[in-house]
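Section 3.1: Structural characterization of target chains.
Under the original work plan, the team committed to producing a structural model for every single-chain target entering the pipeline before any wet-lab resources were allocated. The record below documents one such target. The sequence was received from the expression subgroup and is listed exactly as submitted; it comprises 242 residues.
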Amino acid sequence: MSSLSSLLHVSSGMLLLAEHLDRMLLMFRDATLQRILECGIVAVVRSESPARLVSVVRALAAGGVVAAEITFTVPDAIEVIRQVRRELSDTVILGAGTVLDTETARAALLAGAEYIVAPTLNLDVIRLCRRYDKVVMPGALTPTEILTAWEAGADIVKVFPADLGGPPYFKAIRGPLPQIRLMPTGGVDLNTAANFLQAGASCLGIGGSLVEPKAVASGDFDRITELASRYRAIVRQCRGLS
């Protein structure tokens, strides 16, 4: 075999390997996204103290809410992400929230986050997540912001603050933009969760009405598990699964 033929053979093999790796990475991102959508809930884990947050995520998972984001308003959020990943491994789908820039996004991914959530729309953050084949959920509110986020590569668009328009706003958005996966955050509670799902939400972002600050502060993890179970029951009922 000539040197040129050998080089072409090696180059072809490297190209096939690269394509195979790309497909594998895409499968990993798709698997993460599918697990989030199946769960139907992303718990927003926010606290002034990081001490009990591993136990909080464990309690959420015990109630069926296996997708949780550790927000960067939590002190030492990076270390909390590392601890959750180390102690709970793949039993939870771990994300990082309140991510406002690429530096924070990359640090979170390196610490073990599988997806990035933001309250705002930063196209560079979306590009970074696509580069690393990680799920990304940027924040948006107006139809233009929502479409911009989707066309830039968002896997799910976090509509925030969702309580400004409520479920009727979701229904209105879904009319011209039915292809976009939307997640309301802000204003989602036991009274509104079903309404958001019926209006077309793909999943729900739930903070203090699920991860109750009082329960976190007192270490009442049974309460968090109970709430997680109630929200999961709502998701299953709306999807005709129970």
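The longest strand covers residues 41-45.
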